[in-house]
Specification:
With 99 residues, the chain is α+β, with helices and mostly antiparallel strands. Helix content is 18%, strand content 48%.
Length: 99
């Protein structure tokens, strides 16, 4: 699908929120999360000031987390609400990458 994509690991929640605040239109953030007793992958992108989240169940394949088949979407225009939503989902330790 895509060739080697440059990814940068995000090490802390404060760094995560900084990255989200400065997210460019051609960037995204992938975050490992947990909800309803399952691991999830959350993909965050930003367009015209709104954040779009694609949330999918995560399946372990050869030691990496890959997105499952079904994806649901959430939109946030407000950073604070985005932060609160994510704070309740992300795994500890944080597992997130900017791509």
């Amino acid at each position: 699908m895509h060739s080697m994509v440059y990814e940068r690991r995000v090490k802390s929640m404060s760094e995560l929120f900084e990255e989200l605040r400065d997210l460019e239109a051609d960037e995204g953030v992938r975050i490992l999360a947990e909800g309803e007793g399952r691991k999830k992958l959350v993909f965050v992108t930003r367009h015209s000031g709104r954040y779009s989240l694609g949330i999918t169940d995560a399946d372990a394949k050869n030691g990496t987390w890959v997105p499952g088949k079904k994806i649901s979407f959430r939109e946030f225009s407000d950073q604070r609400m985005l932060r609160e939503f994510l704070a309740g989902l992300v795994t500890k330790p944080l597992n997130a990458y900017v791509y």
